[in-house]
């Protein structure tokens, strides 16, 4: 199973409960999805919605929002907070299946797919390909880069890009973390046409000893070839 069960424990303990839409995702959607946003009731699917930080964004855009989230704890909480989405936010493993049976204009994640090993990421991208409309778009935000300081720590698991068992830093207690360089990103997305690819690195000067954070933003569509 692709989903790291450590996340359910984090949510149950009140950790990782981000509640504000992620600024990079907001920018990417508004910049690259103008045609989708002009539609009536465009369909959006979030993979790994967590505590629902991005739900208000898609409510404001009047999109038909759906999500697959692996944590039973957080799905129950979201059902209480957003009863209007009780049928469209489901608990499941997005690396294995897409339960809604319909195609989407936009499929996106913010640092969710990147918490799997390479094999599960490739499985997820195949599911995305089958779940997008012909003119659909995928957006991935904050996929961790090999330039991230923590790529050199943790314990390698499954493949050379995936680490786990962190004892300090932002990845403690959350299972697998996958890092990518540019060549690896392009290989993972070999069945897509990449419209936008950004690698961003934040060099943290204070407090000293804090990891520098580096990650990728990706906008891609199914390859026309």
The percentage helix is: 25-40%
Please state the second-level CATH architecture.
3-Layer(aba) Sandwich
First-last Cα distance: 31 Å
Q: How many structural domains?
A: 1
**Quick one: biggest sheet?**
7 strands, mixed
Count helical runs: 7
Low-confidence region ranges: none
CATH fold naming? Rossmann fold
Order of helices and strands: HHHEHEHEEHEEEEHEE
CATH class: Alpha Beta
| Rg value | 17 Å
Description:
Helix content is 26%, strand content 29%. The radius of gyration is 17 Å and the shape is globular. A hairpin with a 1-residue loop joins strand 6 and strand 7. The chain has 7 helices and 10 strands. It has one domain: 3-Layer(aba) Sandwich (Rossmann fold), CATH 3.40.50.150. The strands form 2 sheets. The chain has a 7-stranded mixed sheet with strand order 3-2-1-4-5-10-9. The longest helix has 14 residues. It has 225 residues and is α/β, with parallel strands linked by helices.
Keywords for this structure?
7-stranded mixed β-sheet, Rossmann fold, 7 helices, 29% strand, globular, alpha/beta, 225 residues, 3-stranded antiparallel β-sheet
Please give a quick description of this structure.
The chain is of the alpha/beta class. It has helices spanning 6-12, 23-32, 34-37, 55-60, 72-81, 118-131, 182-188, and strands at residues 43-47, 64-69, 89-91, 104-110, 132-144, 155-157, 159-164, 177-178, 192-202, 213-222.
């Amino acid at each position: 199973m692709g989903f790291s069960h450590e996340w359910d424990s984090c949510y149950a303990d009140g950790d990782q409960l981000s509640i504000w839409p992620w600024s990079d995702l907001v920018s990417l959607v508004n910049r690259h999805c103008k045609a989708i946003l002009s539609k009536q009731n465009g369909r959006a699917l979030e993979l790994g919605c967590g505590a629902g930080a991005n739900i208000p964004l898609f409510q404001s855009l009047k999109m038909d929002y759906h999500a697959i989230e692996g944590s039973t704890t957080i799905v129950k909480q979201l059902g209480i907070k957003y009863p209007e989405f009780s049928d469209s936010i489901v608990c499941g493993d997005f690396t294995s299946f897409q339960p809604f049976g319909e195609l989407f204009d936009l499929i996106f994640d913010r640092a969710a797919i990147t918490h799997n090993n390479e094999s599960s990421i490739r499985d997820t991208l195949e599911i995305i390909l089958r779940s997008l409309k012909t003119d659909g778009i995928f957006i991935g935000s904050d996929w961790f880069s090999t330039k991230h300081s923590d790529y050199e720590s943790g314990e390698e698991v499954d493949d050379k890009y995936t680490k786990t068992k962190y004892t300090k830093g932002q990845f403690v207690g959350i299972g697998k973390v996958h890092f990518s360089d540019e060549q690896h990103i392009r290989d993972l997305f070999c069945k897509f046409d990449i419209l936008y690819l950004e690698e961003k690195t934040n060099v943290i000067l204070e407090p000293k000893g804090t990891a520098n954070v580096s990650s990728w933003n990706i906008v891609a569509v199914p390859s026309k070839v």
